[in-house]
Design goal:
Layout lengths: L1 E9 L4 H8 L4 H7 L4 E8 L6 E8 L2 H10 L1 H11 L3 E11 L3
Antiparallel strand pairs: 1-3, 1-4, 2-3
């Protein structure tokens, strides 16, 4: 299993909408869920900063994640553009595996 982690700083007025779209039953999870190897999304909110979030998307393998990105490229880009106005900044932290 791998975990793909992103960090977001959300516009104050957009926090409720962001939670809906990026949460475990939101639009991103729905997109990912149509592809083999997706195991779920977790949305984490910073305990001290209401506007800071992490998403953790779990995939069976990096190749399954890469395949989704390749096949869903157009829909991924469309959803990303729709969500652009919710955040002040975002960055991919990385792809992680459980340490032995």
């Amino acid at each position: 299993m791998i975990e793909v982690v992103w960090e977001f700083v959300v516009k104050p007025e957009a926090v409720p909408r962001f939670r809906d779209v990026y949460g475990s039953h939101g639009a991103w999870a729905a997109l990912f869920g149509r592809y083999p190897g997706f195991a779920g999304t977790r949305l984490l909110q910073d305990a001290t900063s209401r506007q800071r979030f992490l998403t953790v998307d779990t995939w069976e393998t990096e190749s399954r994640f890469a395949e989704m990105r390749r096949v869903a490229q157009e829909e991924y880009a469309r959803l990303d553009a729709e969500c652009e106005n919710l955040t002040l900044c975002e960055r991919e932290i990385g792809v992680f595996r459980s340490a032995p």
